[in-house]
Amino acid sequence: MKLGKNSYIGISLVIVAVVLAMVVGYFRLAVAQVQAYACGMTIEECPHAKNLPPEVYAGYSISLIIGILGLYLMISDLRSVKIKSQSAEQWKKVTNALVGDEKKLYDLIASSDGVMFQSDLVEKSGLQKVKVSRVLDRLEAQGFLERRRRGMSNVVVLKNRQPL
Questions:
Q1: pLDDT higher than threshold 50 for residue 163
Q2: Which of 29, 58, 88 is the last residue of a domain?
């Protein structure tokens, strides 16, 4: 499965959260050792070493928040990728139902990044203007594309185009 940009950001945030938690843990241990040394006892015996400074709680909290945010980004991105792939499969099934001139014109428009002047479509397809216009009418009625007026000509734009 292809990972999206948010997944990589999420993975990075989880790694940062783990590293931050480790740093906070080492900080907590160092503070406990200093407090135990000041008491002249071991860490287990010193009553002050058991009291954690507020910075430790803040550090763990920030680490937890960053980790949760990273996990959220990863999960939401994986869901998005899954939904897009399902949508692309459904769109592919629908477009595979096209035959003849409809398929020919659709493929020409799709190969030009989903946007093409109607006059260029007539030229490249080798079909007559009237035939192209009628086929585009059918494709537009089926919801595959729309025509937008640009001056004296039309621009044909694919609708809801998913990567095939």
A1: no
A2: 88
Cβ contacts of 53 within 8 Å, gap of 6 or more: 31
**pLDDT tens-digit profile of 1-42?**
567 788 889 999 999 999 999 999 999 888 888 888 888 888
125 vs 31, 92, 103, CA distance in Å?
Answer: 77, 22, 11
Average pLDDT over residues 130-134: 91
Bridge partners (DSSP) listed for residue 154: 149
What is the number of structural domains in the chain? 2
Domain boundary among 39, 55, 88: 88
Is the CB of residue 13 less than 8 Å from the CB of residue 67?
A: yes
Contact (CB, 8 A) for 147 and 115: no
Tell me: do 10 and 81 sit in the same domain: yes
Residues 76 and 121 in one domain: no
